[in-house]
Write a structure and sequence with these properties.
The chain has 143 residues and is mainly α. It has one domain. It starts with 8 loop residues before the first helix and ends in a 16-residue tail after the last helix.
């Protein structure tokens, strides 16, 4: 059985989007910094993963979902992000090496493409499942 959220789906969605934008910006800055320093974009993806993942978990747990921070949901969150990592990396390879797009162009495109997967994975990891139901209000609440 999936856990129920303290927040409605609509509230979680705008909060997730806001934190997602913060994390995407942090990821983008890291990718550009590694690129400017002469590092390969694949090295940038690893550095960004290590830095952005715990930041994203903390912000999403508290702000998006109003849930306590703990080890088990964090490990699920890391697993969710890690499961998207090969897809995101593959897209970066296609865009940067295959289509010869710059890191500055490819990174936001890939981030946008990964949004839906990351949204579902965050719900699964922090709430132990994806639920449209609100704990406090009862019933389906997507207002």
């Amino acid at each position: 059985m999936f856990a129920q959220s303290k927040r409605t789906l609509a509230e979680r969605t705008w909060r997730y989007t806001l934190i997602g934008l913060v994390c995407a910006l942090l990821n983008y800055v890291i990718m550009l910094a590694v690129d400017a320093a002469g590092g390969h974009y694949l090295v940038g993806t690893v550095i960004a993963f290590v830095i952005v993942t715990p930041v994203a978990y903390l912000l999403h747990s508290r702000f998006t979902f109003a849930e306590a921070v703990s080890a088990k949901p964090f490990m699920r969150f890391v697993a969710g992000v890690a499961s998207a990592y090969p897809v995101a990396t593959g897209l970066m390879i296609i865009f940067c090496s295959g289509l010869h797009l710059s890191v500055a162009v490819a990174t936001p495109v890939v981030t946008g493409l990964m949004f839906a997967w990351n949204f579902a994975a965050a719900h699964w990891s922090i709430l132990s499942g994806f639920s449209l139901w609100s704990r406090q209000r009862g019933g389906l609440n997507v207002r």
